[in-house]
Amino acid sequence: MGIISFIFWISLFLIFYCFIGYPVSLWLIKNCIRNKKAVANAQSKPSVTIIIPAHNEETVIENKLINLINLNYPAELVEIIIASDNSTDKTNEIVTSFIENNRNHIIKLYKVQQRKGKTNAQNEAVKIAKGEILVFSDANAMLDSEAVNYLVSSFISKDIVYVTGRLQYVNNLEFASSNTENNYWQYDLFMRQIESDIQTITAGNGAIYAIRRIDYVDFNPIACHDSAMPIFAGINQKRAIYNSNAVAYEKAGETSGDEFKRKVRMNREILTFIFGNIKKYNVFKNGWFSYFYLGHRTLRYSLFLFHLSALITNLILSIENKFYLITFVLQILFYFLAGCKLIFGFNHKIFYYPYYYTMTIAAQLVGAMRQISGRSKPFWDKAETTR
User: Fold this and answer.
1) Is the separation of the CB atoms in 145 and 72 below 8 Å?
2) Rounded to an integer, what distance in angstroms lies between the CA atom of residue 346 and that of residue 343?
3) What is the per-residue pLDDT for 174?
4) Superfamily of domain 48-252
């Protein structure tokens, strides 16, 4: 039973470290070493290409275009490319009409002939982009009027190759799923800010980020470009940073079903995030980035493994030990509360928080199983409640 009890306790420790130990360690590191917090260059006004991948976005694409032409950035320095990923609804017609009615702005419709997903649409659109800085956003994410100014002002040195902004969820908070996601997101941004100030972040956000055109990397379409680029920066001694003043607004999934689908899609490469490209764990070469990735990403992506091992080993240990029987019952009670929300729809926090957490773990498991079975795909059906 020695090995089994060790696995049980190490699983619990890693879960605890993921949520409590790592953030505390970041706070300690921040207060013990000199950081590299970037000082923005507000006078910088390079040419910019804003690229919006879009597949069947007829409900939001016009509002997105209105949002983009009203940004507080010189219009003559802004090129807008809508990369329509083989849209079959009225997206192309709406964009074409908007271009005709707004000739004073540089707007292009790029039609991707074969649907291969968001990253491929970006890769293709970049090839025709003319801006010095590439800004990426989603069709359903509205940029703050100063967002581009803040993004471009962060490129103050050649080692900074990627800048991401702050996504703010704007759902009516009566929706428990969006409220929970928003709370978790604030927790994540706290860690991201410290990582950025010390050296480099471990992941970005597809709703708002920017890259120098000369530094753009044409990743495989299955990859999330906003996740792959910070890793590329980290293992190549470059910096990917976070500017909290660059803001985008977006709706989180307002139903549990939509939120689950979104999380499964986010985990479509979860095993690659954990086990792929082991260079990211070379702390001697990558410095703090390797520790950041291990604590912020690897442990989080491995939660489904930790919980499975904790449950299975606890079951074995509970047969001969009353203490482990109690811990096993507590685990079952947690999942029972989650099940009550799933089956009966109970929305009280005592049911919803266990459900939301369990849903997140289940989405990781589904993502891993799909990747193993070869069913992960670079495109997906969007969550309608986020539009």
Assistant:
1) yes
2) 8
3) 45
4) Spore Coat Polysaccharide Biosynthesis Protein SpsA; Chain A (3.90.550.10)
